[in-house]
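Lecture notes, unit on binding sites. The following record was shown on slide 14. It pairs a sequence with adenosine-5'-triphosphate.
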Amino acid sequence: MAEDSPRRPRILIVEDDPGLRTQLRWTLADYDLLLAEDRASAITLFRREEPPLVILDLGLPPDRDNASEGLATLREIRALHPITKVIVATGNQERKNALEAISIGAYDFYSKPVEPDVIKVIIERAWNSYQLEEEITHLRDGLQGGKEFVGLVTAAPEMLKVVNLAQRVARSDVGVLITGESGTGKDVLARAIHSWSARNDKPFVALNCAAIPETLLESELFGHEKGAFTGAVARVHGKIELADGGTLFLDEIGDMPLPLQAKLLRFLQDKVVERIGGRKLLSVNVRIIAATNKDLVTMMREGGFREDLYYRLNEMGLIVPPLRERPGDAVLIAIYLLKKLSAAFEAPPKGFTRDALARISSYSWPGNVRELENRIKRGLVLADQGYITPEDLDLPEQGETRDVLPTLRQVREEAERRMLSRTLALTDNNIQEASKILGVSRPTLYALMKALRIKRRA
Ligand SMILES: Nc1ncnc2c1ncn2[C@@H]1O[C@H](COP(=O)(O)OP(=O)(O)OP(=O)(O)O)[C@@H](O)[C@H]1O
């Protein structure tokens, strides 16, 4: 192990009995330990070092026979750093105190005298839990750092570029064509553009061209007068009219039939609409944002989409990358969505397990954010422990890529392993030379090689 980078957590042991202190020191010799004997010295040390784990004897002086000092220390530690994991030690007959400690936030407890195997298991569990919470806290902080754009969450440079472009284009009235796979957030982006535009106090009207039968689509867009056709029992205003002053979002524009494409183009040129069966021309001022997951260029070539309309709509093209090409976004959006969707639940899960986050990060998300949202809804319903597990999300394991979200320790070890192997190869296995290049002593280099299981190649 490298001398300056402990792989194991730092643990503060608060124990007034010197014998038990020594016993813990021996048992936990592999860890980086801090020792305190009473509440005051424990808190001073804790403030200075902020260790992630604390082993706390509840019977501290001056009130050894009761738990008051221990519980007060626990409260203080929790107030200073709420995610610290405090493991309390109690005498055999003090179950009541242990339970009280748990109720005010202790992570776990054990009865003295300590059993080495038991305490080690408790410590490893606590350490895992600490790291997970820390990771989530960091992600949340990232989220609070201005990465949410009116319902659109991202931290991926690929997506931030698109958002930046969208923010700039929002100020003008140019036609925007958003392309991207299904479920990537084209709708969210269109709404965001509207909210950044000067039209944001006017309506945002959306029409999904694929969801409406061809025969009804024209009347949806342009409206109709009473009696215009069988079943037209009253005048209906079209979506274009309804969006007057605001933004009309034409989703799945690639599914618009050719005759209607011609009519839409005419509207874009003249800015007037005529309801079906009507005689009046109504002038309307709308900004059009269109979206599609189809390849309009190929469609144009094959005669399925009008070229002149394409250029009108695509004055500014925005391409939303699929989720698998936005590193970090799946986890970030998952945490955001969990928080958002949790509001509807009485006792929602606290978060995701480390495994679940790793699986979310490594999965390829063919259905993009929509699939992510659906799986989180499933997880919210199925999670019956404090955290959502990979099983709750029904996410398949994905071979080697499963650990895309490694721990800091794994990243460090991997970097060290690579650097050591390279240096040893470079120096032809000369330990003295290699340790000089790496800036560590020879014993440290040997220790590192042993820890990382690196052998000298013959
Ligand atoms: N970056 C994001 N942050 C938060 N939520 C998102 C994000 N992107 C998408 N969503 C959510 O995911 C779901 C799907 O997004 P949306 O409907 O915008 O996708 P789309 O690309 O328009 O899909 P389609 O092509 O099928 O119409 C929505 O519920 C949306 O709120």
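Take-home: The two ends are 23 Å apart (CA to CA).
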